[in-house]
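User: Predict the structure for this protein chain, please.
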Amino acid sequence: MENIIVTKNDMRIDKYLAEVTNYSRSQIEKMIEQNCIMINDNLAKRSTKVKIDDVIKWIKEYHFTTEMIPEKMNLNIVYEDDDIMVIDKPSGLVVHPGSGNHSGTLANGLLFYTKNLSDENGEQRPGIVHRIDKDTSGLLLIAKNNTAHQILVEEFKDKQVSREYIALLTGEFKNKNAIIDCPIGRDEQNRKRMTVTAKNSKQAITHLTVLKRYEGYTLVRLKLETGRTHQIRVHMKYIGYPIYNDPVYTNKNCTKFGQFLHADKIHFVHPITKEKMCFTSEIPKEITEFLNTLNELKE
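Assistant: Here is the predicted structure, written as structure tokens:
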């Protein structure tokens, strides 16, 4: 993990790190107990209070041991064979365990449904080849064995997997098409967010096509050329048209449903049969019902 430069005064280190990282306060406390964290080159204590410009370092990795428990879940399975599955994930469902989410994830549901899942990504991510955010809905590829998983990973690297999204942007986007080619890295001011930055970043490319314009909004199709964390959400905010109802990248009050971003298409080559495959998913009713309240602009 990268070093953290403190931006607040007089806050306990465990509370501060829980605020600026993806770890919970209890997880931070466990790291401190295991001498995993230093502040200004001294081992941190739970009672240590940070000051502006303090430097926090992770001096060794802490491995959380949380047993994965199978949980019965209504999975929307779009396709399944002996090697892969395609799941249509609803908004609000976390893909795999992480900070503060050790149960109730798609991975827990997959374990209950079948024992035939790849373990290439470890015990906490059975079958998970790629992911989408908790409040992003839509299609996900699942590998049921390690051979299929390894081949799919290579397909992602070689850009043989095409993922497309539908999103509602805040504001009336003027052009018909756009390519956003801006590098993305961790936001140094808020470690839970990503941002467009030249520092410690990776190339990120998103293709945008306008579908419809409404008064104050634009419905777009987005195609990923790369797959960075929060890529679409960050790019849309950067160009000045954030995704509607995004609780992280807008300053407006948002409903529980979360960002209006839906992974509606996925194209790939079957890892074993080599058949070209394409699947689509309908836009969630929460989004379509909101669209029906808007005034469409005529071209």
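The radius of gyration is 21 Å.
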